[in-house]
Each structure stands twice: as C-alpha cells, then as structure tokens.
C-alpha cells in the first residue's frame, strides 16, 4: 500500500466543514497562535517575526513571562511578548514592577528593536495595556 501525500493547508479546500475539521484537529497552542496573529493583523501592528534590528515598530501580543532580572547592577523588569509568530523580549530598565504587567496580559508596545544574543529586544517601550474584557 503506497502512502498518498496530503496537500498543504494552503492547497486544501477552504469550506466551512474543512475549517471545522482543521480547528478540531489543531492543538490548543496552534489555535492560540492563530488567534494572536489575527489580532495583530487586525490592530495594524507589525508581526514580531517581520521585525528587524534597529527598526521602529508597533507590536501587540500576550505576555508569556514576567521576571525581575538585574542588568549591570540595575533592576530590570523583563517580559516575553508573543504574537503567534515569534517571541520578543520587552525590558523596562530601572523598574522592579509595573502595575498591570503580568503573564497572560495583552498589550501593544512600540519602540526600536535591538538584537541581543540572537533575540529581538525592545528596551523601555511605550506601551498600552489592552482592556481585560477583550481577552
């Protein structure tokens, strides 16, 4: 018996039944990533995966982690922002905590992207917390 190759998602029919089957067979993480990507696109923000070094951007996503990690002896609040395409480290230098900055919270951040140890970083961004009712 020979194996028949399955077509890619882009090549599959896009009927209502097919979309329902795709959602049922997708993992929870895939569904959340897809939802975050749609939210990012709807808000007119740049996808994190499209951000390059030294580019001024406006991104949105969900905070996955929030930690206090000193940098060169100065307190720094670090958070990982995820928009469904890639993670972005958001760092507030000189801060031990910020009200509303907690895991699971959605926000919009803007500033200049830097690359540090192969990861995208946004230092001291302007940010806007998304309303809790929208989550």
Summarize the model shown:
The chain is α+β, with helices and mostly antiparallel strands. The chain is 19% helix and 35% strand.
The overall average pLDDT, rounded, is: 84
- Described by the principal axes of the CA atoms, the overall outline is elongated
Number of strands: 6
Q: How do the SSEs run, as a string of H and E?
A: HHEEEEEE
Q: What is the C-alpha radius of gyration, as a whole number of Å?
A: 18 Å
The strands making up the biggest β-sheet line up spatially as: 1-2-3-5-4
What helical percentage do the residues reach?
10-25%
- Spatial gap, N to C terminus: 48 Å
Uncertain runs are none
- How can the largest sheet be summarized? 5 strands, mixed, barrel
Percent of residues in beta strands: 25-35%
Task: Give structural notes.
This protein is of the alpha+beta class and 135 residues long. The mean pLDDT is 84. The protein contains two helices and six strands; from the N terminus they run ααββββββ. The chain has a five-stranded mixed β-barrel. The termini are far apart. It is elongated and about 55 Å long. A hairpin with a 2-residue loop joins β4 and β5. Helices cover 19% and strands 35% of the residues.
Annotate the secondary structure layout.
Elements: H1 16-25, H2 28-42, E1 56-68, E2 76-82, E3 87-93, E4 106-116, E5 119-123, E6 126-129
Parallel strand pairs: 3-5
Antiparallel strand pairs: 1-2, 1-4, 2-3, 4-5, 4-6
């Amino acid at each position: 018996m020979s194996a028949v190759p399955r077509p890619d998602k882009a090549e599959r029919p896009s009927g209502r039944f097919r979309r329902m089957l795709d959602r049922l067979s997708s993992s929870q993480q895939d569904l959340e990533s897809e939802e975050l990507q749609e939210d990012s696109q709807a808000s007119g923000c740049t996808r994190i995966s499209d951000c390059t070094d030294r580019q001024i951007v406006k991104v949105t996503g969900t905070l996955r982690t929030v930690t206090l990690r000193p940098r060169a002896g100065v307190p720094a609040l670090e958070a990982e922002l995820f928009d469904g395409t890639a993670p972005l480290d958001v760092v507030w230098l000189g801060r031990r905590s910020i009200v509303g900055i907690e895991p699971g919270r959605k926000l919009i951040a803007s500033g200049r992207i830097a690359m540090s140890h192969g990861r995208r970083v946004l230092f001291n961004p302007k940010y806007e917390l998304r309303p809790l009712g929208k989550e």
